[in-house]
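Board notes (copied after class):
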Amino acid sequence: MRAIFLILILAVVAIIGAVSLGLIDVSQVRGAKAPTVEANNGKITATGGQSPKFEVETGSVGVGTREQNVTAPSVTVKVPVVEVNRPADKRAQPQTNTAQ
């Protein structure tokens, strides 16, 4: 129920905003006339009447594409380098005997 009221309030605000910005122009072309109602001998008859007529003009919104040159900033990317050095293998090196 609250959601319906919220939607109605937003719709009314949108319509008021559109009218105030000049996007919608509503003008009455023909006025309303109430029907003639008569009661005779217990019978009620209604004749005539006219509903009002309105003319609504709306603004237009154009959506399209165009070519445009845009300057973009230059980007420099530096990638970090990781080096892994293993210690020298001591078994592969020949041992020297200095005590003689």
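Comment from the instructor: The mean pLDDT is 85. The CA atoms of residues 87 and 93 lie 12 Å apart.
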